[in-house]
Write a structure and sequence with these properties.
Length: 208
């Protein structure tokens, strides 16, 4: 149980820094409520699970090939820029009927999934943090402890997603509608900033 709680808090601490997923959750939750914000986090967790399984089954080398890294930087840049621009476009509507028309739940899930799946920084996290946890647990405790440690990390990530979704939805319920344009602006600009950074990294890889 001590090991589980250690990795549980590790999952929370790794999720807490503000990044593209948290920014998207905040904007979507403030505009459309808890479920949409949580589904973005859930989609991101499913992408995390894919990377965890690839590393677990020894396919980590595939994730670090120059072609795949360049593709992920480029496609990740596209996803983030598209999402950021779409977020900024919502600023045109203030009292809008658009805020009353909720996007499909599958759209929120897909947004979180693609943003995490096409994020090379996410891959570096799983290779660096989870890869070392996997090696250490295998050496010291065996297979059963690996599953327990992995469950602890995911439980921490899940709790943070719920907390973020709850915070965003509280803005949706109790915040002033005048806050929405500011939240959308900050979220959209941060997503575009991440997208430009991803594009820059892709160009640097091509130039090598």
């Amino acid at each position: 149980m001590n090991h589980f709680m250690t990795y549980f808090f590790l999952g929370i601490s790794l999720s807490a820094p503000i990044g593209s997923i948290n920014a998207a959750q905040l904007e979507r939750g403030a505009r459309h409520g808890f479920t949409h914000a949580w589904l973005i986090g859930l989609g991101a967790m499913c992408a995390d699970l894919i990377y965890m399984l690839l590393i677990y089954f020894g396919l980590a080398h595939f994730l670090t090939t120059p072609f795949l890294k360049t593709f992920l930087w480029f496609f990740g840049s596209f996803v983030l820029l598209y999402t950021g621009i779409e977020t900024l476009q919502s600023l045109k509507v203030t009292n809008s009927n658009k805020d009353r028309i909720h996007p499909a739940h599958s759209s929120s899930f897909r947004t979180g999934f693609l943003m995490a799946l096409m994020n090379p920084l996410n891959i570096l996290f799983w290779l660096g943090i989870y890869g070392s946890i996997l090696a250490d647990s295998m050496q010291q405790f065996g297979m059963s402890n690996i599953l327990l440690n992995s469950a602890g990390i995911f439980a921490g990530i899940l709790l943070w997603d719920i907390l973020m979704a709850g915070f965003a939805s509280s803005i949706h319920r109790f915040g002033s509608p005048k806050l929405l344009p500011y939240i959308s602006a900050v979220s959209g600009l941060s997503l575009i900033g991440f997208g430009l950074y991803f594009g820059y990294q892709a160009v640097c890889l091509l130039a090598v």
